[in-house]
Design brief:
Layout lengths: L6 H6 L2 E7 L2 H11 L21 H11 L12 H16 L3 E8 L2 H7 L1 H14 L6 E9 L3 H13 L6 E7 L11 H9 L3 E6 L5 H9 L5 E4 L7 H10 L2 E4 L1 H6 L11 H7 L2 E4 L4 H4 L3 H12 L3 H14 L4 H12 L7
Helix pairs in contact: 2-4, 4-6, 5-6, 7-8, 15-16
């Protein structure tokens, strides 16, 4: 049996993370609490909501929105505050030896109050403030299915006009079962025409069919979660052969009871089948985790050595929404990790 990579070794490896939500409301709340502006401290937001009380996609909605109990004022949504929480997130990433991170944002309130460009410019300002730490950054605009195809198309058009804010991709997320991918084909086509990468949350709460349609109807090159692909061997073959990458988030899957435990997570099945997978923290503040912790847990639970962890991170580098030369350079940096000392 392979010795699992140690936490110390994992901490030192250059990292890439592709599935990371800014979680604006929680980070803004923590920001104002730190300033003493909110007496109702929320010390452990990931423990506020009990997902066992709900089922399906409603479980995720309840966990996210109940976790924002004590809604913060609209006045807190300022460009300066958005820049501050983005800088904070990227500072946390740099402390984990992160070399590149793609940050997702899709909150209705932020886009409504600041405008899509205002929100993305503020995030870019925060990224610039953290640039001296050495990590790269790209923004992914999340389109929420429940808000309908018209809003999706508007949002994508505005995102495509913000390439100067380092927007690199569009993510389709939300209720898989009631809002099928075909509804958003036009919006995704606009994103592709603008040169943006396409990732789709699929196979998280719905079955393999959601992944098939995300790949074939929307042309997704990455799938958010995608754990239900394990139920369809033909789909596993197709994902492997097309080089589609799964953005796995193990703690998130367990917390939402999509898998019974870390031991039962299908990650090893994907690896054995040759499907490209990445490990990600999803909503770190909400879930009480980060990428280093996720990789350490994966290594320990599934007996992955340092080479296997580096390969996971190299897959993330290859799947990043960057030009080919930048992806290749990022992969070389990941693979430059020194061998662990005996």
């Amino acid at each position: 049996m392979t010795d699992a990579a140690s936490a110390a070794t994992i901490a030192s490896i250059p990292k890439v993370e592709l599935h990371l939500h800014l979680e604006t409301s929680l980070r803004l709340r923590r920001l104002v609490e730190r300033r003493g502006d909110n007496p109702l401290a929320l010390e452990q937001p990931h423990l506020v909501a009990d997902p066992t009380r709900f089922s399906g996609y409603d479980r995720l909605r309840r966990l996210r929105y109940a976790g924002r109990a004590g809604r913060i004022a609209d006045a807190v949504y300022t460009r300066a505050n958005i820049a501050a929480i983005t800088e904070e997130l990227l500072t946390e990433a740099a402390a984990q030896s992160m070399r590149y991170v793609e940050v997702r944002v899709g909150g209705r309130r932020g886009f409504s109050l600041l405008g899509v460009r205002g929100m993305l410019e503020a995030m870019a300002e925060g990224a610039d403030a953290a640039r001296h730490l050495g990590g790269g950054y790209g923004a992914i605009v999340t389109v929420v299915r429940e808000r309908g195809p018209d809003e999706a198309e508007r949002l994508v058009r505005e995102a495509a006009a913000c390439l100067d804010c380092r927007v690199v991709g569009v993510d389709l997320a939300g209720d898989e079962e009631n809002y099928p991918p075909a509804m958003f084909a036009t919006a995704v086509g606009l994103a592709r025409d603008a040169g943006l990468g396409i990732t789709v949350h699929a196979g998280e709460f719905s079955g393999p069919a959601a992944i098939w349609t995300a790949v074939y109807q929307l042309g997704a090159t990455r799938i958010g979660h995608g754990i239900r692909a394990v139920e369809d061997r033909a789909l596993l073959d197709r994902l492997r052969d097309r080089g589609v990458t799964l953005e796995l988030c193990l703690t998130s899957n367990v917390r939402l009871r999509l898998v019974p435990s870390l031991v039962h997570h299908p990650l090893p099945v994907f690896l054995r089948h040759g499907v490209r997978v990445t490990v990600n923290s999803d909503d770190p503040l909400l879930l009480g985790t980060n990428l280093s912790r996720e990789l350490t847990v994966v290594a320990r639970t599934h007996h992955l050595g340092t080479d296997a962890i580096v390969n996971l991170l190299a897959d993330a580098a290859r799947a990043a929404f960057l030009p080919a030369d930048a992806r290749a350079a990022l992969e070389r940096e990941v693979r430059s990790a020194p061998a662990p000392r005996a």
